[in-house]
Design a protein that fits this description.
By secondary structure, this protein is α/β, with parallel strands linked by helices. 59% of the residues lie in helices and 6% in strands. The chain has 20 helices and eleven strands. The longest helix is centred in the middle third of the chain and has 28 residues. The two termini are 47 Å apart. The C terminus is likely disordered.
Length: 540
C-alpha cells in the first residue's frame, strides 16, 4: 500500500463518516458560545476581544471564534454547516497527520490503522462534528504529539524534533489556554527522551526556538488583547476559570467512566501495552518501537486517570491524549493474538449485516419525517458493498480489519444523517425562534435585544440585532424589542403602548417576548448574506 493510497483512503472514510447530515441538527452544547462571538467579529470588526450578545467574553482565547468566522466568510453563508466546517476539517487534518507521520515509523498500513482508530473513536464521532473547541484543540495537540513521536522514532533531533510541535502547541494556547495540552505533550516528550537517554534535547537550540515560537504566537494576540481590555479585568476572569479546574482532589467514578468511554472501542487495546508476549514480539520486530510503548504506557495511564482525580475536570479534558494512544494501539496491534484478530473480523461481519438491516428499515424509523432518499440509497448500496468486502477480504491483516470497522462507522453515520436527523429535527427548540421572529419583523429592520445573557437561539435570527442593557435604554427610534419577561416587567414605563407580545422559547426553554414598539416606518433593507437551513433564505 502506497502512502498516497493511505491518505486517499483516510480522506474518503473521513468524508463518509463526518459529512452526512453535518448541517441538519440545530446547535447544542457549547456551540453557541463559540459561534456567536465569531458572528460578532464579522459584524463589528473586532477580532481581538470576543463578544457574546453584545458583551465581552473573557473565558476563552479567540482562535476557535476566528476559524468559525473565516469559515462563514469563505462560504458566504451563516448555517450550521458553515460553522461546523472548521471542526471537521481539523479532524481531517489530524487524521491525515496520523496517517502520514505514522507511516514513517509504523509503515503505511500502521499509519492507516492509527488514523482510523482516531476517526472511529466514540468521542470523535460526536465531538468531531460540532462547532466546539475540542475538535480544533485536540487536532493541534495531536499534530504536535504525532510529529514528535515520529521524529523520536526516526532518531531526529533539534529543529526537526521540536519546531512543528512548537507551532501546534502555540495555536493550542490560543484555543483553550496552556492547560492541559502542554502537560500532556511534555509528559510524552520527557518520557521518550528519558527512555532513550536524550534529555539533553530539552536544552537544545531547537527546543528553545520552539518555545520562542510558542510564546510569539501567544503574545501576538495577548498583547493587543491586554491593551484593549485593560479596564475590564479580563485576565482575572480567564485566570479564575483556570483555577476552577483545580479545585481539589477527589475521585468521581462518573468522570472516570466517561473518560474511558471516550476511547471506546479501541481503548481496550491498551491492555496489550502490558502483555509480555506482545512486547517481546514487538521488540524483535523493532527495538525502538518496543521502547516507545514501554516508555509511554505509564504516562498515558497516569495522565488519563490522574486528570480525572482532580475535582472540576471533565472527561473531555483527556481527549488530547487520544491521538498518541491511537498510534500506540496501532504499534502493538500486529502482534495481537490471531484469535483476537479473528474475533474482530467476525464482529465486523455481524455489525455490517445489522447496519444493512437498519438502513433498509430506515424509512420506517424516520417517520413522521421524510428521510433524504438519495443519501439513504447511497448508504444502503455502500453497506451492501461493505458486507461483501468485509466477508470476503476484510480479515487477517490489521489495516483491513480497521478499514472494515471504519466502513461500518460510515454506514452508521449515514443512517443517522440521512434518516434519523430529519426526525430529530422535528423536536428542535432553538431553530424555530428564527422563523417566528421573521414572521413579525420585516427583512432588514433592526431588532433591539435587551440583556439576553447567553442565548444560542439568536443564531437563527436573520435580522440586524442591537443590544441594550435595560429596557429603559431602548432608543426612541426602536421598532422591535426582544427581551425576557422579567426585563419587560422592569421596563413598563418605556414599553407603554407596545403591541401584543409574541412568546418565544430560547435555550433551556427560557421565555422571551418579541414586542412591536410603535408603527413601523419605511426603511431601506440592509444587504444580508445568504443563509441555509433556516427556512428564510434571501440571496445576494
Amino acid at each position: 500500500m502506497k502512502r498516497s493510497t493511505v491518505l486517499l483512503l483516510i480522506l474518503a472514510l473521513w468524508a463518509a463518516i463526518y459529512l452526512p447530515g453535518l448541517g441538519e441538527a440545530e446547535l447544542k452544547g457549547e456551540e453557541g458560545r463559540r459561534i456567536l462571538p465569531a458572528l460578532a467579529m464579522l459584524e463589528n470588526g473586532d477580532w481581538v476581544v470576543p463578544e457574546v450578545n453584545g458583551r465581552p467574553y473573557f473565558r476563552k482565547p479567540p482562535l476557535i471564534n476566528w476559524v468559525i468566522a473565516l469559515s462563514v466568510e469563505a462560504t458566504g453563508q451563516v448555517s450550521e454547516w458553515s460553522v461546523r466546517l472548521p471542526s471537521v476539517l481539523a479532524t481531517l487534518a489530524l487524521a491525515l497527520t496520523l496517517g502520514w507521520t505514522g507511516s514513517r515509523w509504523l509503515g503505511n498500513r500502521g499509519g492507516l490503522v492509527a488514523a482510523l482508530f482516531f476517526l472511529t473513536s466514540v468521542s470523535f464521532l460526536e465531538k468531531g462534528r460540532l462547532a466546539e473547541i475540542e475538535a480544533v484543540y485536540v487536532a493541534q495537540t495531536g499534530i504536535a504529539l504525532a510529529w514528535f513521536m515520529a521524529a523520536w522514532a526516526r532518531r531526529e533531533k533539534g529543529w526537526r524534533l521540536w519546531l512543528v510541535p512548537g507551532i501546534a502547541l502555540g495555536l493550542g494556547i490560543l484555543t483553550k489556554g496552556p492547560v492541559p495540552h502542554l502537560l500532556f505533550f511534555y509528559a510524552v516528550a520527557v518520557a521518550l527522551l528519558w527512555a532513550s537517554r536524550e534529555l539533553r534535547e530539552l536544552r537544545s537550540a531547537g527546543h528553545f526556538a520552539a518555545l520562542a515560537v510558542m510564546a510569539g504566537i501567544t503574545l501576538a494576540w495577548y498583547l493587543p488583547y491586554r491593551a484593549a481590555t485593560a479596564q475590564m479585568d479580563a485576565t482575572a476572569v480567564m485566570t479564575e476559570q483556570l483555577a476552577e479546574r483545580f479545585m481539589g482532589v477527589g475521585l468521581e467514578w462518573r468522570n472516570l467512566l466517561g473518560a474511558f468511554s471516550n476511547g471506546l472501542p479501541w481503548i481496550l487495546l491498551s491492555l496489550f501495552w502490558w502483555n509480555k508476549r506482545v512486547l517481546q514480539a514487538l521488540g524483535e520486530r523493532d527495538e525502538r518501537l518496543a521502547l516507545m510503548v514501554k516508555a509511554l504506557r505509564w504516562p498515558m495511564l497516569v495522565g488519563f486517570i490522574g486528570l480525572m482525580l482532580i475535582v472540576g475536570m471533565l472527561p473531555r479534558y483527556t481527549l488530547p491524549l487520544l491521538p498518541a494512544m491511537a498510534l500506540l494501539w496501532a504499534a502493538v496491534l500486529p502482534e495481537a493474538p490471531a484469535s483476537w484478530l479473528k474475533g474482530w473480523h467476525w464482529g465486523n461481519r455481524v455489525l455490517a449485516i445489522l447496519l444493512l438491516g437498519v438502513a433498509l428499515a430506515a424509512p420506517f424509523l424516520a417517520k413522521p419525517a421524510t428521510p433524504e432518499w438519495a443519501g439513504l440509497v447511497a448508504v444502503v448500496l455502500g453497506l451492501a458493498g461493505a458486507v461483501w468486502w468485509i466477508w470476503r477480504r476484510g480479515g487477517g491483516e490489521p489495516s483491513r480489519l480497521a478499514t472494515g470497522t471504519a466502513l461500518c462507522a460510515a454506514g452508521a453515520m449515514g443512517i443517522y444523517g440521512f434518516a434519523l436527523l430529519p426526525r430529530i429535527s422535528l423536536t428542535d427548540e432553538l431553530a424555530p425562534v428564527g422563523p417566528r421572529v421573521h414572521a413579525v419583523v420585516p427583512e432588514g429592520v433592526l431588532v433591539h435585544v435587551v440583556d439576553p445573557g447567553y442565548e444560542a437561539s439568536l443564531f437563527y435570527v436573520r435580522r440586524p440585532l442591537a443590544y441594550v442593557r435595560k429596557a429603559k435604554d431602548l432608543p426612541p427610534e426602536a421598532r422591535y424589542a426582544l427581551l425576557r419577561r422579567s426585563a419587560m416587567e422592569k421596563g413598563k414605563k418605556r414599553l407603554e403602548g407596545a403591541g401584543e407580545p409574541v412568546s418565544l422559547r430560547g435555550e433551556g426553554k427560557k421565555e422571551f417576548l418579541l414586542l412591536k414598539l410603535s408603527a413601523e416606518s419605511e426603511k431601506t433593507p440592509r444587504p444580508q448574506p445568504s443563509f441555509e437551513g433556516t427556512g428564510d433564505s434571501p440571496e445576494i
